[in-house]
Amino acid sequence: MKRHPGIGQRVSLAIAFAAASALCASASGEGRDGPDRDRGDRHDQSQIKRGFEIVPPGVALNLVGKNRALVGLGSYIVNTSGCIDCHSHPSYAPGGDPFQGQPEIVNAAQYLSGGRQFGPFTSANITPDYAGKPAGLTLAEFLAVLRTGHDPKDPPGTLLQVMPWPTFGKKTEHDLTAIYEYLRAIPSLPNNPNPGP
Fold first, then answer.
1. With 81 labelled, which of 2, 71, 154, 174 sits at a CA distance of 20 to 30 A?
2. Boundaries of every domain in the chain
3. What is the mean pLDDT of each run of 10 residues along the chain (197 residues)?
4. Are the C-beta atoms of residues 184 and 128 closer than 8 Å to each other?
5. What is the three-class DSSP state of 39?
6. d(CA 34, CA 126)
């Protein structure tokens, strides 16, 4: 004959299960409130760490008043998604072009200051303006540009023709906010003085 746990044993099992579940949720970062909630899961943590590792040499980050985790994640996304290929001209410093078999050296002097020409279109300077806004856009405007392809500085009905906004627009709001936060942290540069293809 099988023994069934008594009510006391079932309550003890339920309490043990609840405690184990709470411990697992705490370890995984679920249900966090306060300053730790922005840290994300372990996958996010590895991207944040890698993001700080791949900030190009010569690009000094200003982390004052910024969310450090978002800056790191934003760096990871920006520096692994080809943003410099379009928004920096040239992308690499002399002697640092990996496509020529040279050790990579990103062009920090023109990092994300625009200037890459695609026929009649020139990529925008997406470094922060005098007010600290990337490309002169608020976060809401930045999110709208990446979701809709319409830059509020352009006439109504005009859509960005080269920027892969349909792809970037599929990213989560968290990812897009991280990109914005990283761009807020990089040095402000004037528009690229030597645009070219």
1. 154
2. 1-31, 35-185
3. 42 35 35 43 87 98 97 98 96 97 97 96 96 98 97 93 94 97 98 94
4. yes
5. helix
6. 31
